[in-house]
Design goal:
binds FE2/S2 (inorganic) cluster; single chain; 4-stranded antiparallel sheet; globular
Length: about 180
């Protein structure tokens, strides 16, 4: 009997330390990515139930931190946990504050084949989003103006909660004219 109690206590201790280890591991991986790539990890989201169709909630910055009319990149990692296994997936979105109280957030993947696109401030395509993979070009509002992308940039559901921009991140099927969740 005493041995059974002892086993249960030992097991509980082991479970606790596994949980602590998992937390430490996830935090460390996020910190490593930020250090190794020099890219600020705006958010690190841990989810064991990330459903691609339902999406995942990601808290970005305060709305007031985004300059009006200037697209701002936000990058984060999604960590899927499955027992001991952790899979990190990088994601990005472009935040465009359109007025004092309004904001649009685009999924960071090009609607052609899913490459990461960038905002061009100067040069030939100044003030446009440009995808380097096949020269896709979008307006600041996400409309296609050149290249093969079959639809505008994909917008994401947004909520302003206590002044903070909160999005529901989702992925969409690339290469098709309709915005279809995957
Ligand atoms: S993936 Fe963006 S233009 Fe092809």
């Amino acid at each position: 009997m005493a041995d059974e109690r002892c086993d249960a206590a030992a097991e509980e201790k082991l479970l606790l330390s596994r949980r602590q280890f998992n937390k430490w591991l996830i935090g460390s991986i996020g910190a490593f990515i930020a250090t190794a790539t020099g890219v600020p990890v705006v958010g690190s989201v841990v989810s064991s139930v990330f459903s691609k169709s339902q999406g995942i909630e990601v808290k970005l910055r305060k709305l007031e931190d985004y300059p009006v009319g200037e697209p701002t990149l936000a990058q984060f990692t999604i960590t899927r946990t499955d027992g001991w296994q952790h899979t990190l997936e990088s994601r990005s979105v472009w935040v465009l504050r359109t007025s004092e109280n309004e904001v649009t957030v685009f999924n960071g993947r090009c609607t052609h084949l899913g490459c990461a696109y960038n905002w061009k401030e100067s040069g030939k395509e100044a003030d446009h989003f440009v995808c380097p993979c096949h020269d896709g070009v979008f307006t600041k509002e996400g409309e296609v103006v050149a290249g093969p992308p079959p639809r505008p940039l994909d917008t994401l559901p947004i909520e302003i909660r206590d002044g903070t921009v909160v999005i529901t991140y989702k992925d969409f099927r690339p290469g098709v004219p309709e915005k279809t969740e995957v």
